[in-house]
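Hi everyone, sorry if this is the wrong subforum. Our group has a chain we'd like a structural model of before ordering constructs, and none of us has done structure prediction before. Sequence below.
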Amino acid sequence: MFNFHARKSPSTCHWGISLGDGYVAGSNTTAEENNGQTRVTFRSGNSDYGIFSLISSYEVCRYKYKMLVSGTMEDIGDVVIRQIDPMEVRTFFLV
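Answer:
Right subforum, don't worry. Here is the predicted structure as tokens:
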């Protein structure tokens, strides 16, 4: 499993399953940001549920994890990527 979240906003996050070779499966994935210039590369499916490259999703999240504050865009932090081994329950509690 993997988890993306904005360092300054842990509640802003995305989860998925790593498939290996740089691809993941996930649902409710933002397909593009940056006025359509940054897109998730789907191998199959779409933003509802699909298989896509992890790096392309990371690039989209870099743009998505900004919030509107007082009429200006404010960066809410670096994207943090965590991998979780579901066979090791204790990893769920690591920070």
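For your construct planning: Strands lie at 2-6, 9-20, 23-27, 32-33, 38-39, 42-45, 49-53, 66-69, 72-75, 79-83. The chain has a mean pLDDT of 76.
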